[in-house]
Amino acid sequence: MPVHVRQRAEVRQRLRGDRARQRLARAGVAAMAERAAGRRQHQQDRLARVDARAADVTGCAVNAAALEALLVVAGVPRAPFKPGTPARLRQARTCYGHMAGALAVELHEHCVMQGWLTDGAAGEYALTAAGEERFARLGLDPAPLRKLRRRFACPCLEWSERKPHLGGALGAGLLQLALRQGWVEQDLDSRALAVPTKGQRRLLAAFDMVSPA
To answer: Which of 147, 165, 26, 150 shows the shortest CA–CA distance to 90?
Structure first.
């Protein structure tokens, strides 16, 4: 085969190889983009499901309260409330990323009574200036929580107590703070939160609910 013919054949072969590599590279980039888009969509779907479940819980709380009010007006005696929540979950547990249970109800009531939480728009809570200062002093900055794609703070019905605890991004931030400080400890195989005696004492002292021992 003449040299010039062989050289042209080699050039064509290299060009075909380059085009093949370019096609593979484009396909790889497209696949990576598709996987990234899939992951983003999955995260968005998870957030939407969490918000929907939280909205369902809040809606159920409103409906239950309205039904109880109608029964009182009608003179129908209320049956004594008997919680069906397992004992190990009643004191403290997780609920859609925030803290629930008797301890969470107590904290919620205290925050409202101290004037740290006030009624806001659409059934949500707003932090007062005193509340901003208190949570910041505890190490929980409310500003980044307001930027999250979920409600900032809202009441969430506590089924084991039939009273609300603190939900939303602020409630979730409070749970993470409690875990970091060792006020509560996450159970490894359930939603239960263990509350060590020392941790509970420190938590209540941090919120001025008792004097430090």
So the answer is: 165
Residue type, 175: L
What gap in Å lies between CA 39 and CA 60, rounded to an integer? 32
Q: Which ranges constitute the DSSP H helices of 74-128?
A: 87-90, 102-113
- Percentages helix, strand, coil for the chain (3-state, rounded to 5) are 60, 15, 25
DSSP one-letter string for 25-64: HHHHHHHHHHHHHHHHHHHHHHHHHHHHHHHHHHHHHHHH
* Residue 165 · residue 187 · CB < 8 Å: no
Q: Would you say 189 and 172 are in contact if contact means Cβ atoms under 8 Å apart?
A: no
Give yes or no for a contact between 116 and 127, defined as CB atoms under 8 angstroms apart: yes
Q: What is the pLDDT of residues 172-209, one digit of tens each?
A: 999 999 999 999 999 888 889 999 999 999 999 999 98
Reduced to 3 states (helix: H, G, I; strand: E, B; else coil), residue 130 is helix
Share of the chain above pLDDT 70, in %: 61
**Which helix (H) or strand (E) covers residue 16, if one does?**
helix 3-73
